[in-house]
Design goal:
Residues 73-100 form a coiled coil. The protein is mostly helical and 170 residues long. The protein is built from five helices and no strands. The chain is 64% helix and 0% strand. Helix 3 packs across helix 4 (124-144).
Length: 170
């Protein structure tokens, strides 16, 4: 029995369909034992030795098909054409992605402009520029104040106001 053939396990002894086959021992008796491989090969060298004992070729199902002549140039040209097609496909996909990215940026700019108009009315960028300029001027003015003297004067006043509020709660 060869490796890929199913063996008789004895479970179907009573279920015969009237078709009898020759026992495996009869089939194996007529085969050259040097040509039988029941298990895998231990090494590649053993495989090639087995192929050599078969005469360098083995028939499959009683028919041997002639291999189609494949020239290396044709294979390379075919592969090169496949790669060119794949490159064109990738370029088309990249073009679509670039178009989508440009659309996203344009829509984000439109959204920001609409949001500014909704919050600040007409000429929102002018109003924002005025608010930033006013903030700059106020910050410069605060930095020039003598905060040490202001804090020293204001601290007792703040403490007294807090004491009054605490006294009123009691």
């Amino acid at each position: 029995m060869f490796k890929d053939e199913l063996g008789d396990t004895g479970t179907n002894k009573d279920m015969r369909d009237g078709v009898e086959t020759a026992p495996a021992s009869f089939e194996e008796a007529s085969i050259n034992p040097d040509l039988i491989r029941r298990e895998g090969f231990a090494s590649e060298a053993e495989y090639w030795a087995h192929i050599a004992t078969l005469g360098g070729h083995a028939s499959v199902g009683g028919t041997v098909e002639e291999p189609l002549p494949i020239y290396e140039g044709h294979v390379l040209e075919g592969r090169l054409q496949e790669l060119r097609e794949e490159l064109e496909n990738l370029r088309a996909r990249l073009h679509v992605i670039q178009h989508q990215a440009a659309t996203v940026v344009t829509e984000n700019v439109r959204w920001a402009d609409a949001s500014a108009h909704a919050q600040l009315g007409n000429q929102p960028w002018l109003k924002l520029a005025g608010a930033m300029a006013a903030t700059f001027v106020v910050t410069r003015g605060i930095m020039r104040l003598p905060l040490g003297a202001v804090a020293t004067t204001a601290l007792p006043l703040v403490a007294a106001a807090m004491n009054r509020k605490l006294a009123q709660r009691r």
